[in-house]
Amino acid sequence: MQIHHYRRELGPSLEEPVSVYPYTMRTFRSATDVPALHTLLQEAYAANGGALAPREEWWRVLSTDPEFDARLVLLVETPVGTLAAACIAWNSGFIKDLVVLPVHRRLGLGSALMGHACQAFRRRGAHAVVLKVEAGNHAAIALYEALGMRRVESVAA
């Protein structure tokens, strides 16, 4: 599997994130969000032929990583309170995961999540946001390029 690296500079003209109404965007609240977040990631990965470790193992590895900060876990809920999308970002300005369930795609949720992540990184003093994406994930690549990200050889933030 070939991986591409993308980067976006976080200059002074960074646009404000778009609204996700009637969806709600929020940050990770507590370990009570873990089951729903794990299920969301599993469903999104399965749609592209991927898989995720069992919940307990996944959460232990994620939450004990020195790059993890629960304030950089952004969640989008449907009007009835189920998760539709999520972004998990590392302290270093790296987007670890950005997923939108297939039924909720093409509604601007991915763009809104990236916008909020970029704003959070800029508030923390980051100069760029970086991520990795599978070369065959054309929809994600189109989204990232539309958001001003450019393919690079190195992902140093």
Describe the structure.
This protein is of the alpha+beta class and 157 residues long. It has a domain of 109 residues: Aminopeptidase. The protein has four helices and seven strands, in the order ββααβββαβαβ. Strand 5, helix 3 and strand 6 form a beta-alpha-beta unit. The longest helix has 15 residues. The chain is globular, with a radius of gyration of 15 Å.
Question: What is the structure about, briefly put?
Answer:
With 157 residues, the chain is an alpha+beta fold.
Summarize the SSE layout with pairings.
Elements: E1 3-9, E2 24-27, H1 34-47, H2 55-64, E3 73-77, E4 83-89, E5 94-100, H3 109-123, E6 128-134, H4 138-146, E7 150-152
Parallel strand pairs: 5-6
Antiparallel strand pairs: 1-6, 1-7, 2-3, 3-4, 4-5
Give the radius of gyration.
15 Å
Task: Choose one word for the global shape.
Answer: globular
**How would you write the strand order of the largest sheet?**
2-3-4-5-6-1-7
The CATH superfamily of the domain at 15-123 is identified as Gcn5-related N-acetyltransferase (GNAT)
Count of alpha and pi helical runs: 4
* CATH architecture descriptor name of the domain at 15-123: 3-Layer(aba) Sandwich
Unreliable sequence segments = none
